[in-house]
Each structure stands twice: as structure tokens, then as C-alpha cells.
């Protein structure tokens, strides 16, 4: 006997509605508590663009543990497939990508009317001052050098999402 697929949207909607009404009926809720609640019911999507499979897998694990949705792309061609599915809330991108390097791809993102406001963080092994300067000229929000400290990366992502995400 085949199992009937459960439609959880209605159930989730009920949970969200009841939680919101209880929050509204209670004492004033801090903005941080509200953001934490919103993150749980509508988690931000982070897009990781890196040609190294192990780096993509590591970042996916790091951010999924923080309750983010993580999408992965190895290069510009995979990026186009991901953007057909979802608009990310933040992009983490390597500079050394095949076909189009990260700077070229970043410039294209920052020139696109629908994508230019998405926070962009370069995470790269390229550590020269020229590379960092070029990233910020393109419009990057930050540049984190590999190998990176996980806590620093998580804090950067958290801060940029707070700044750029409407309440």
C-alpha cells in the first residue's frame, strides 16, 4: 500500500499563526528574538560557489548546523541552475573558479538589477592586497582569506544577513 504524501504547508501555517498570536499577546519581544523566530520558520538561503567539492561540503555542513538553507554551485554554469530555483539571501564565492573567475562573476552579479543587492562575500586563497581591493571595487561586502576561522565566517554571514534582510 503506497503512503499518501503529507501536505505539511497547512500544518506549518497553523504553527506560524499560533506562534505569532502568542508572541503578540505576550510582553514586547526583542528584535533579536523575533529574528530568531523568523529564521526558524523562514531560514535564509546561502549560496556557496566554490570549485572545490570539499570546501562546498564543509560550508554546507557549517551553515546547515546554523539552520540556514544552503545551495551549492561549482561554477557559473551551476550557478545559473541554482538561480532558476531560488534567489539566495547571501552569496559566498571563491575567486579561483573555472570558466568565469569569481571577480568576473561577482561583477556580473553586482551589475544585475535583481541580484545586485544580495550580499557577496569572497572566500578565497588569493590573499594579495590587489585581490582584496578588486573584490571591494566590484561591490563585495567582505573578503575572507582561506584558511578561515569558522566563527569569523559565521559571524560575517550573520551580520550581513541582519543588515540586509528586512524584518
Provide a descriptive summary of the structure in words.
With 167 residues, the protein is α/β, with parallel strands linked by helices. It has one domain: Response regulator (Rossmann fold, 3-Layer(aba) Sandwich), CATH 3.40.50. It is built from seven helices and five strands. The protein has helices at residues 8-25, 31-41, 53-64, 76-85, 102-111, 129-138, 150-164, and strands at 45-49, 69-73, 90-93, 120-124, 142-145. Strands 2-1-3-4-5 form a five-stranded parallel β-sheet, sandwiched between helices. The longest helix has 18 residues, at 8-25. It is elongated.
List the helices and strands and how they pair.
Layout: H1 8-25, H2 31-41, E1 45-49, H3 53-64, E2 69-73, H4 76-85, E3 90-93, H5 102-111, E4 120-124, H6 129-138, E5 142-145, H7 150-164
Parallel strand pairs: 1-2, 1-3, 3-4, 4-5
Amino acid at each position: 500500500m503506497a503512503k499518501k504524501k503529507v501536505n505539511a504547508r497547512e500544518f506549518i501555517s497553523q504553527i506560524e499563526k499560533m506562534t505569532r498570536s502568542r508572541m503578540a499577546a505576550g510582553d514586547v519581544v526583542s528584535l533579536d528574538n523575533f529574528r530568531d523566530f523568523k529564521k526558524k520558520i523562514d531560514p535564509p538561503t546561502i549560496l556557496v560557489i566554490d570549485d572545490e567539492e570539499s570546501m562546498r561540503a564543509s560550508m554546507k555542513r557549517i551553515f546547515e548546523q546554523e539552520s540556514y538553507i544552503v545551495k551549492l554551485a561549482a561554477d557559473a554554469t551551476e550557478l545559473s541552475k541554482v538561480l532558476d530555483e531560488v534567489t539566495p539571501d547571501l552569496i559566498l564565492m571563491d575567486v579561483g573558479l573555472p570558466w568565469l573567475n569569481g571577480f568576473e562573476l561577482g561583477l556580473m552579479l553586482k551589475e544585475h538589477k535583481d541580484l545586485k543587492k544580495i550580499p557577496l562575500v569572497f572566500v578565497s586563497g588569493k590573499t594579495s592586497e590587489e585581490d582584496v581591493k578588486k573584490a571591494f571595487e566590484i561591490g563585495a561586502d567582505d573578503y575572507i582569506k582561506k584558511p578561515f576561522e569558522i566563527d569569523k565566517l559565521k559571524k560575517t554571514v550573520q551580520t550581513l544577513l541582519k543588515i540586509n534582510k528586512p524584518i
